Amino acid sequence: MASADLIRAVRRNDKQAEQNIRIQLQNYGIDSAQIDEMARANTPARVFKVYAPQSGVVTTLEAADGMYLQPDSIALTLSDMSSVWLMVDVFEQDIARLSKNSDVLASFEHLPGQVLEGRIDYIYPELDAVTRTLPVRLHFDNSEGVLRPNMFGRVTIIPSEMRRAVTIPASALIRTGSSDRVILQTEEGTFQPRMVTPGLTGRFGGGSRTEILQGLEAGEEVVTSAQFLIDSESSLSAGVARMSSAQDGPIWVNGTVTNFDAETNSVTIRHDAIEELQWPAMETTFAVRANLKNHAFQYDRPIEFAISKGSDKRFSLVDLRDVKDQASKTAPADTVGADEK
Q1: Residue 33 CA neighbour count, 13 Å, CB half
Q2: How far is residue 322's CA from residue 303's CA, in Å, rounded to a whole number?
Q3: Is the Cβ–Cβ distance between 182 and 197 less than 8 Å?
Q4: Where are the beta strands (DSSP E) in the chain?
Q5: Where are the domains positioned within the chain?
Q6: Which residue, among 137, 252, 236, has the nearest Cα to 184 in the 3D structure?
Q7: Of 183, 186, 215, which Cα lies nearest the Cα of 198?
Q8: Hey, what's the torsion of the CAs at 163, 227, 286, 307, to 10 degrees?
Q9: What pLDDT does 87 receive?
Q10: Alpha helix (H) ranges present in the chain?
């Protein structure tokens, strides 16, 4: 119909009508070259070509010969495979290390020995309520067409900022349903269980290693075949049982605040030995629970604080108070407020 109207407008030399019909045909997806050809023809065109705005692969075809298409009808689906998105799920404890455009590496079983480079394209605002993971969309160049929809791969996200961390061989970590532990070898040649909070696992510095966020200091020696020791030594099994019973309530410890990070809402405390966890006197970083969000932390002032294990298996600061008999002897200390997030 529009093709016939165009021919009549051209014959009448009606420029305004011709322009309106050309716009109508362009809205149908017909390019200018075909419209000019229609205007020069003696008979109306029965068919015309519609060109896709991009090249790609037809993944679904809904249209058929003689089919009547409405403006909202989908004739076919065209996928541009020259670049692809890869969806990954990131654990809650690793979210703080993500940033848009960070580099990522991916490997796939059908590409042995080949590592593809990409970047973080979008970080979704909400966690999955069931898996407690955050969806992240990655962008990869696929000009060679090696990646296809619904493939699975292994991804390494390279954080924009690197940090120093205590790591152990992955085989040294004993994972259970309620907690994670390692077995230490003491200077006396004996073995001692200790509860820890693990972080990332990867090939750090060669070999498979696990980051330890809480419970270990650099230089301490751990047993790599720890599970065998627990199975064979009744004394170690008893030590592990004692640590399990200590997880029921908060644990109170003495220490001093050395740093507060408002961005991650975490506090670093130099504390005494924690007998319930077999932790020595050392410096540990704890997440700040919501009930202490507005607390003003004071540096280098003796305090008594309580920690408790959360659902993420990480010990968090849940309460604190001044050590009154020592507080009066100390000079005024620097104060910093917790971030209201």
Answers
A1: 3
A2: 4
A3: no
A4: 57-61, 76-79, 83-91, 103-107, 116-123, 133-141, 154-157, 166-169, 174-175, 180-185, 191-202, 209-214, 251-261, 266-271, 282-288, 296-298, 302-309, 315-322, 335-337
A5: 2-51, 83-157, 166-245, 251-337
A6: 236
A7: 215
A8: -170
A9: 94
A10: 2-12, 15-27, 32-40, 226-232, 234-245, 324-327
Spell out the CATH class of 251-337: mainly beta
Q: What is the mean pLDDT of residues 138-160?
A: 88
| Mean pLDDT on 186-202 | 80
Whole-angstrom distance, CA of residue 213 vs CA of residue 315: 10
Closest listed residue to residue 82, CA positions, set 152, 137, 144: 144
Q: What are the phi and psi torsion angles at 307 (to 5°)?
A: -120, 150
pLDDT digits (tens, 9 = 90+) for 282-327: 999 999 988 887 788 889 889 999 999 887 778 899 999 887 644 4
> SS3 of 96, please?
helix
pTM over 0.70: no
3-class secondary-structure state, position 128: coil
Backbone φ and ψ of 66, nearest 5°: 80, 0
CB distance 111 to 146 below 8 Å: yes
Give the CATH number of domain 166-245. Answer: 2.40.420.20
**d(C-alpha 271, C-alpha 276), whole Å:** 14
Q: Which of 251, 243, 291 is nearest to 272 (CA)?
A: 251
Least confident of 144-153, 197-206, 280-289: 197-206
Task: State the Cα–Cα distance between residues 186 and 221, nearest whole angstrom.
Answer: 8
Tell me the CATH architecture of domain 83-157: Beta Barrel (2.40)
d(CA 280, CA 41): 91
Residue 18: the pLDDT is 82
